[in-house]
Amino acid sequence: MTRPLLGIVCCIREFEGETIHRVIDRYVRAPARWSDADVVLVPALGTLADSRNLAARLDGVLLTGSTSNLESWRYGGDGGDGGGHGGGHGGGDGPHDPQRDETALALARAAIDAGKPVFGICRGFQELNVVFGGTLQHLPARAQAMHHAPAGVSTDAMFAHHHPVTPVADGVIARALGPAPMTVNSVHYQAIATLASDLTAQAHAPDGLVEAFSARIDRSQVLAVQWHPEWDAEHNPQSRWFFTALGDAMRA
């Protein structure tokens, strides 16, 4: 086949008085290189887009991290989300991006129904849990020190913050990378509260939080991680594996 076509859902931001649709560069370059895929950006048009038509034309979907949180009503919450970046940098109630929510959740469902692979990173990990009926939580203060750098540090320092995760024995990650604990970067204040019943945990943090999951729904492969493999894929073979797995899934 020709190089697969990967769709990456945009976020909505305000820039110089205008509304823009954007994806951070590293989320585009990592799959273009390590998945050996051509990448197209899917604007966050919500109900203006035909998700089934898009899913039919794409070979896979990647849901990225972001500086926003899912609106909690989408998973039965009460509105007390707590704040952003890829499922959490920031504080307070939000920020939110309802058009990203609408677009990402609908496209993920349509792609899964079409038998296409859907992979998720950080916010995308959380979105996929919600797609399958799971719930999210804002981490209590006692857990935040493990999962996020202190407020006010540089971007490099924020993404250098790390903790170990332990792959589930004989799971997807353990079979690919080995069963030993691995070190991952950690940049989130939100996390899974209840893992959806159709998803299988693939790695846990020391405090028990689910940090990776997978599913096989008919022909659709689903894989998502709470950490950020796009940040260091150039130098970290474990991070590159996420994108080579995505490329393999699109070609399967």
Order of helices and strands: EEEHEHEHEHEHHEHEEEEEHH
Overall form: globular
Radius of gyration: 17 Å
Helix content: 25-40%
Which runs of at least 5 residues are low in confidence (pLDDT < 50)?
80-86, 88-92
The largest sheet is: 9 strands, mixed
Q: Strand arrangement, largest sheet? A: 4-1-5-6-13-12-11-8-9
Distance between the termini: 10 Å
Determine the mean pLDDT: 93
By DSSP, the count of extended strands is: 13
Per DSSP, the total helix count is 9
Strand content: 25-35%
> Which structural class do you get from the secondary structure elements?
alpha/beta
Give a quick summary of the entry.
The chain has 252 residues and is α/β, with parallel strands linked by helices. It contains nine helices and 13 strands.
Structure description:
There is one protein chain. This protein starts with a strand and ends with a helix. The chain is globular and about 40 Å long. With 252 residues, the chain is α/β, with parallel strands linked by helices. 32% of the residues lie in helices and 26% in strands. The longest helix is centred in the middle third of the chain and has 16 residues. It contains nine helices and 13 strands. The strands form three sheets. It has a nine-stranded mixed sheet with strand order 4-1-5-6-13-12-11-8-9, with helices on both faces. Strands 2-3 form a two-stranded antiparallel ribbon. It has a two-stranded antiparallel ribbon with strand order 7-10.
